[in-house]
Write a structure and sequence with these properties.
This protein has a single domain, classed as ABC transporter involved in vitamin B12 uptake, BtuC (Orthogonal Bundle), CATH 1.10.3470. The protein is 76% helix and 0% strand. It has 14 helices and no strands. The longest helix is centred in the first third of the chain and has 35 residues, at 51-85.
């Protein structure tokens, strides 16, 4: 833990929030269509209908907002999952929740030809919930019950299952492949404010739930016996935490597709900076997750310009070495 006092933690959080704002502004300014900061300012103060102004206000602004919101959602979901499971590798990607949400959306597109954004959102929630409960059920089987290793293996198996089913559907239906292939790689390119409007109320509700749960999660991480001794209803806390994770992961996937590694990397970075108090970890994870995905999205525009790399590829390049590092350390630390 680098920052210990309240004032230090608050100052750093404010500084990181400013960095997030600058990152979002940079996301609006930089890209294939050449614009600058003055032109961006004019687009929001003196809109004239030019192509540059339209790009800035209808393409890049939603993209910046979505990147920040999706990054924050995935990071908070990872922080909650790591705390509840005491598993340093826990995240929506590793535990198959993203894959489950993605499969349900692809199945709806391929089989029922669904195209509604609102339907995508609810299908992603349903898929996330199905994957989460399946992983929990499989991981709890056996005499030892839930353990970090069993949960990780169960999550990897369920993620592989849903990914295989998704690929099978796409092989059968080439039209669906064309529609969702870039989305499945994890991308926020071309997303409109309508996509954000369909999901932000659920993400906001999940943020509020996590904020209220933070003190209770601190107690729960001390052990269930201790939590029960202090009068905590651990089952209720876990139920609300699971609901928050499903809303966060499902909502993020419905907008951007399954983006991996944000939920692994960011909670570890937050704990390294400010310790294990979830009253701080949750807001830090939100801000750091937003920064990571926003900056990754900016970088994705320049790698093979004029084409773009899906932002999920960029987060994988960042997160894979970190994942290997954590896995080699073992499960001693959460």
């Amino acid at each position: 833990m680098l920052f210990k006092s309240f004032s230090q933690k608050l100052f750093l959080l404010i500084a990181l929030t400013l960095i997030l704002v600058v990152s979002m502004c940079s996301s609006i300014v930089y890209g294939y269509a050449r614009t600058d900061w003055a032109l961006a300012y004019q687009a929001f103060t003196e809109f004239n209908g030019s192509n540059e102004h339209i790009i800035l206000t209808t393409v890049r602004l939603p993209r910046a907002l979505i990147a920040a919101l999706v990054g924050a959602s995935l990071a908070i979901a990872g922080a909650i999952m790591q705390a509840l499971t005491k598993n340093p590798l826990a995240s929506p990607g590793v535990f198959g929740i993203n894959a489950g949400a993605g499969f349900f959306v692809v199945a709806a597109v391929s089989i029922f030809h669904v195209s509604s954004l609102a339907a995508y959102t609810w299908l992603a929630f349903l898929g996330a919930a199905a994957a989460a409960f399946t992983v929990y059920f499989v991981g709890a089987m056996g005499r030892e019950g839930l353990t970090p290793v069993k949960l990780t293996l169960a999550g990897a198996a369920i993620a592989a299952l849903f990914s295989s089913l998704t690929q099978g559907l796409l092989v059968i239906d080439e039209a669906a492949l064309d529609q969702v292939l870039f989305w499945l790689a994890g991308s926020i390119q071309g997303r409109k404010l309508e996509a954000l409007a369909s999901v932000w109320p659920y993400l906001a509700a999940a943020f509020i739930i996590c904020a209220f749960l933070a003190p209770k999660i601190n107690i729960l991480t001390m052990g269930e016996d201790v939590a029960r001794g202090l009068g905590q209803k651990t089952g209720t806390v876990k139920l609300f935490a699971a609901a928050a994770v499903i809303l966060l992961a499902g909502g993020a996937v419905s907008v951007s597709g399954p983006i991996s590694f944000v939920g692994i990397v960011i909670p570890h970075l937050a704990r390294y900076l400010i310790g294990n108090d979830h009253r701080w970890i949750i807001p830090y994870s939100a801000v750091l997750g937003g920064i990571l995905l926003t900056v990754s999205d900016i970088a994705a525009r320049y790698v093979i310009m004029p084409e773009e790399v899906p932002v999920g590829v960029m987060t994988a390049l960042i997160g894979t070495p970190f994942f290997i590092y954590i896995a080699r350390k073992g499960f001693d630390q959460a």
